[in-house]
């Protein structure tokens, strides 16, 4: 009987240990409301931003239709304004490569730059190009529209002539119309998915597993910051990954004066996501920053504060650059390199320190190191 009693107690102890391991959620021992965080992100950041983008693209589509009917300077300027407004809003959603956005490869179809002028010209002449084809990713989206309204002539009159007196004027107008229609259609598809079921599964997928929405969202956030912002907007033009600088690789190449503005907006969007700040509002809710704080055991060492401070430092450095980042590369690339360095410091905090703290594995291939 003694042996049976000892065996029974031992089994209870083992079961208790197993239960303790399960409740730790793979090493994340806190009672943080992860579903509440995901709800805040979905309802107050993602869906409102996609809704705004969808509305902005509807305006862009209407302005392009009006301009195509009667191309003139007023219509061109109205189209440019609508393009910039939508492109600015895009900076708030590009990081959310999850759900339908990932399925339709939204980022690749909206913001591959520099755009391929040869492909655009060939598509125009074709008259029936499949804009959804992978090989056209560099001939569609915001950069392609930008080329069509800024890069098709040496001045505004030449650009208007491209849509009026050019031998292919009708085809040129149709391609511009098709570009905006494709962008609007894709965004509508993603927004509809969020509003018809995906939101609910997203906010409840909070497990610490490789396939949970929570872990994928965190990985998508870091991937965007590292690749989409740090590398694409600053590092590649500055020549970090090449033998020389590449001033023609900036975002907003043809409009010339918006590359810094777009990068600044993108970094602000990253910061707002991290602290759970509602889209177009100063209100904040449960956030990744809160999750980090809840997971910390050393009250004297706040990683979330360190990350937020580094975002601010990077933003301050970015603010010193020329409005035209291509010009900045050509005149003083050292300042671009310094901006990259400040952005890079946050990569280490996010990708190494934060992921280790949250016990989340990186789910993408790292091509350039930390």
Automatic annotation (TrEMBL):
<protein>
    <submittedName>
        <fullName>Iron-regulated protein A</fullName>
    </submittedName>
</protein>
<dbReference type="InterPro" id="IPR034984">
    <property type="entry name" value="Imelysin-like_IPPA"/>
</dbReference>
<dbReference type="Pfam" id="PF09375">
    <property type="entry name" value="Peptidase_M75"/>
</dbReference>
<dbReference type="InterPro" id="IPR038352">
    <property type="entry name" value="Imelysin_sf"/>
</dbReference>
<keyword id="KW-0732">Signal</keyword>
<dbReference type="InterPro" id="IPR018976">
    <property type="entry name" value="Imelysin-like"/>
</dbReference>
<dbReference type="GO" id="GO:0030313">
    <property type="term" value="C:cell envelope"/>
</dbReference>
